[in-house]
Design a protein that fits this description.
This protein has helices spanning about 10-20, 25-35, 60-80, 90-120, 130-140, 155-175, 180-195, 200-205, 225-230, 265-270, 290, 310-320, 345-350, 360-365, 375-380, 385-395, 400-415, 425-440, 450-460, 470-485, 485-495, 495-505, 505-510; strands spanning about 140-145, 145, 215, 240, 245, 255-260, 275, 285, 300, 325, 335, 340-345, 365-370. With about 525 residues, the chain is of the alpha/beta class. It folds into 4 domains: about 5-175, no CATH class; about 225-370, Rossmann fold (3-Layer(aba) Sandwich); about 375-440; about 450-510. The strands form 5 sheets. The chain has a 5-stranded parallel beta sheet, with helices on both faces. A two-stranded antiparallel sheet has the order 1-2. Helix 1 (about 10-20) packs across helix 4 (about 90-120), helix 4 packs across helix 6 (about 155-175) and helix 7 (about 180-195) runs parallel beside helix 9. The chain starts with 8 loop residues before the first helix and ends with a helix.
Length: about 525
């Protein structure tokens, strides 16, 4: 006898896929639609693009899915009581439905645990909800005198659900906006946390993601540290059913180090630690971030492209062997945490110039995230500008954020226009908001093109190496960087603004802005 009625088969298989899909990819919507059929609400389908979507449990499609899935589970449970025999494939589908139901039943409890721990700035206290979670799960998974395979590992699933809730929170907390590039960025961060295959993650990868170094690249001012925080603060933390607690503090496990702000000696000291007398000012032994970082923590190395060659060798050793020594000693110490690095530099060019080691790069890039520019985000969804301004204003003026947002939007529209390039990206937008708030004006700094990129264009022209189309592409890009506006660039070139936009070379634009 089949465990599921033929009429329910489509819902069962779709929910099984939903449990393991990336919620920020179109596949989630496809699975929801397949599960609900004519009851699917297309107007609610894109719940995953707004920060308030941490409460996706309250969306109509999800509530309806939960109701139907619970009904199918009850019917299947009755069949199992009468006839315990079922195929492995059907038992696997049944367990997936159990995961879906348990996750949504206890979602609010996980959120409370997470937010309370963040408010205290301390690890989560005893989580007594595990008792009811375990009782609930056992009832659903009991099979005659035994239980389904999933019942043997309930603490692991409890920890995985908690990780998923933290991942949702951190992704929405640190990545604002609804544009296509922003949603793609969320999907990429989700994969950096869980990989593209959640089933494999559940089985074997959940405690091995520290072996994958994450490299975040993109223009300056696009929030690379925020991306690093979203990944680093969403790591898997085991749950101990005996103590009813998680084994580590998720809120205080992110250790950032800005390499461009320190001398090579200080970088080594901050990263590896030192012993007394190693250099002037080293009056005591000192632990570095690699030593302080707990096994489930993350060290974030911002501006990795600025790293001195000698320190690159030492960092490579950490990534290869997981060992390091403090400055001034030979004792081998072990690093078990995760490393995330970020840069706005062109590491490929730096490797060609011999400035950045190829072997280090290929150790860093096992997991690559690229942040989009603000201009790319606004080209996809102009409304994202207001959302970002509102977020910035709320941090500055609280209840008057809407009024300030209106004022800033008007000023930008009147003085910069909707095609302003925002070469400083979100960081520049924040300074614009602050300037308008204080002075009722903002004067963009002209970002001069780097001599190398500008000279390269000139050299190619003089050497007659460019086709007419390549020449037009480079000149359009150069003019756009100089004016910051499609309209103004088109006016000076005698071209339509759409032609200018179509001819832009993104890589050349980054180089002309000096990596900004």
């Amino acid at each position: 006898m089949a465990l599921f009625d033929p009429a329910d088969r489509g819902l069962v298989e779709a929910v099984s896929q939903l449990v393991y899909c990336n919620p920020f990819l179109p596949e989630r919507i496809e699975f929801e639609q397949a599960a609900l059929g004519e009851q699917f609400d297309p107007g609610d389908a894109h719940w995953n693009i707004r920060p308030e979507s941490i409460d996706e449990h309250d969306h109509p499609n999800v509530l309806l899915l939960l109701k139907h899935t619970e009904a199918v589970l009850d019917a299947a449970r009755q069949k199992l009581d009468d006839h315990p025999a079922a195929s492995e494939a059907e038992i696997a589908l049944y367990e997936d439905l159990v995961l879906f139901v348990l996750y949504h039943r206890y979602r609010e409890g996980f959120d409370r645990t997470m937010l309370e721990a963040m408010e205290r700035g301390a690890p989560a206290k005893r989580v007594m909800a595990y008792d009811s979670f375990s009782d609930d799960a056992v009832k659903l998974l009991r099979l005659g005198d035994g239980a389904m395979p999933m019942a043997d590992d309930l603490p692991h699933y409890f920890a995985a659900f908690f990780q998923i809730r933290r991942a949702f929170y951190n992704i929405f907390q640190f990545i604002l906006g609804a544009s296509e590039p922003t949603v793609r960025l969320r999907a990429s961060v989700w994969q950096s946390i869980f990989s593209h295959d959640m089933r494999r993650y559940r089985r074997v990868l959940y405690d091995r993601m520290a072996d994958f170094t994450t490299l975040v690249t993109g223009p300056s001012g696009t929030g690379k540290e925020l991306i690093a925080r979203a990944v680093g603060l969403s790591r898997y933390i085991p749950f101990d059913p005996k103590t009813r607690s998680f084994s580590a503090d998720f809120a205080g496990s992110f250790l950032p180090l800005n390499l461009s702000a320190l001398t090579p000696t200080l970088i080594e000291s901050e990263l590896f630690g030192h012993v007394r007398g190693t250099f002037t000012g080293a009056v005591d032994d000192r632990q570095g971030w690699l030593e302080v970082c707990p096994p489930l923590g993350t060290v974030f190395l911002d501006e990795i492209g600025e790293l001195d060659g000698g320190i690159q060798v030492k960092l490579l050793r950490v990534l290869q062997s997981r060992t390091f020594s403090r400055l001034g000693e030979t004792t081998q110490r072990r690093f078990d945490g995760k490393i995330i690095a970020a840069t706005n530099r062109d590491l490929a060019a730096q490797m060609r110039d011999g400035v950045f080691r190829e072997d280090l790069y290929y150790r860093l890039c096992s997991d690559l995230i690229v942040t989009p520019s603000l201009r790319q985000r606004l080209d996809s969804d102009p409304a994202e500008l207001r959302e970002l301004i509102m977020y910035i204003a709320a941090r500055l003026v609280d209840d008057e954020a809407a009024e300030v947002t209106d004022e800033v939007e008007r000023w930008i529209d009147e003085h910069l226009g909707d095609q302003y390039a925002w070469p400083g990206n979100v960081r520049e937008l924040e300074q614009c908001v602050r300037n308008v708030l204080v002075h009722k004006s903002y004067h963009p700094t002209v970002v001069s093109a780097s001599g190398g990129a500008r000279q390269s264009i000139a050299d190619s022209m003089l050497a007659c190496e460019l086709t007419a189309d390549e020449l037009l592409q480079r000149y359009c890009t150069l003019m756009y960087v100089a004016t910051g506006s499609y309209e103004e660039a088109g006016r000076r070139l005698g071209l339509d603004r759409r032609t200018v936009k179509a001819k832009l070379d993104e890589d050349l634009m980054t180089k002309l802005r000096g990596g900004a």
